[in-house]
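Example protein as discussed:

>
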Amino acid sequence: MLTETELRVILTALGIVASILSIIKTWLDIKGLRSKNRKAQNRKKPRRRKRK
């Protein structure tokens, strides 16, 4: 059986890992939103008409 100190260390380590993963997820979400915004801006640009 694990002692109280070992359990605290394990839970602290798990908390740190969870925090790091949430930061990475947030960063990826922001990155995805930025790329979507760029694509949307490219779609909004008026296209040049072809000369006849």
Remarks:
- Helices lie at 4-44.
- The mean pLDDT is 88.
- The CA atoms of residues 2 and 24 lie 31 Å apart.
- The first helix runs from residue 4 to 44.
